[in-house]
Amino acid sequence: MDAIVEKKTTRNSRWDREPVVDDGGKPTIAYLIDRDIEIFKVLARHRYLPSDYIHAFVRGDYKSLIHRLNLLSRKPNLYINRPQQQREHAEANYRKLVYELDDRGAQELRDRDIEVSKKKYHRNFTHELIVCQIAASIELGTIANSKIKLIRWPAILASDKLPDATRRLANPLSIPVGDHRKIPDGEPIVIVRQFETTTYIFLVQEADCGTEPIDATDNDRSSIRRMFEDYLTIIEQRTYHNHFGANTFMVAIVTTNETRMSSMMALLARMNPGQSAKRFLFKHIPAFTSYKQSAPATGHMLTEPWKRAGYPDFHLDKD
Q: How far apart are CA 100 and CA 107, in angstroms?
């Protein structure tokens, strides 16, 4: 009897960039379609995003999107990348993959006259992922609500309302505070609410992963108190108007659990900020390193209320 020879198949690791091969053993080439370009645009706006967030923007069948993301990230395509930092999670092999735009994908956008910022090095992947989730969730919320518009940082930077002195700075994001400068974690945005009257909310975002003390006694050490002091100075001196040309200013702070959020709010209350306290908004979502279920890929950052210290909850999507 002839021996039965089984054909061996090799499954690619989710972490390598080896090609997807066809039945003939040749690498599969991704011929770009409109949906691919939309994926690249989303990742150009938000540096790191899990696959479900990408799906929330581009829609369509989720399984086919997963296969497409896999193909786009592998040789010889290499349009997008799966950051290796996500492997640090103990359950990395079972969680939704996080993607970023790779150089080839960025060049495809530039070839279409779509501006793409240069990649910046981020030493804390978990922190930067929260920053991206905040901004992406707010954007998703505005997409679903025709009465809410979003003005992103590139449009703010190009606006004639931005003072020329700020535009000429090496980093226009850096806000002067006494003898130093404060740089928000996320790029500022303006939320435009178009109801009976049109209102504008100039919003900066801060992400906290619990790595800094709440209330450090050393003034030279980064802490939540130091962050509050900086923003209170910016609010009380109306530096936001001189620096950004903004007439409103709020600080959205997202941390990783309810206990830490409550401690932050309690500290702000102890600092007796007066009415300035109502400018600080608080939420919490699980960090990437947490075993809890990840924050949903929805517009919840816009549609669900934010906590405030000593003031009622605040709704970004309502008057």
A: 14
Per-residue confidence in pLDDT tens, the chain, 319 aa? 444 333 444 578 899 999 999 999 999 999 999 999 999 999 999 999 999 999 999 999 999 999 999 999 999 999 999 999 998 877 778 889 999 999 999 999 999 999 998 877 777 999 999 999 999 999 999 999 999 999 999 999 999 999 999 999 999 999 999 999 999 999 999 999 999 999 999 999 999 999 889 987 655 567 999 999 999 999 999 999 999 999 999 999 999 999 999 999 999 999 999 999 999 999 999 988 888 888 999 999 999 999 999 999 999 999 8
Report pTM: 0.93
Q: Helix (H, G, I), strand (E, B), or coil: what is residue 207?
A: strand
* Residue 205 near residue 135 (C-beta atoms within 8 A): yes
Within the chain, what is the greatest distance between any pair of CA atoms? 90
Q: Which residues of 122-159 are buried (b: 16+ CB within 10 A; e: fewer)?
A: eeebbbbbbbbbbbbbbbbbbeeeeebebbebeebeee
Domains of the chain: 34-111 (1.10.10.10), 125-303 (no CATH)
Taking the C-alpha atoms of residue 233 and residue 182, their distance in angstroms, rounded to an integer, is: 11
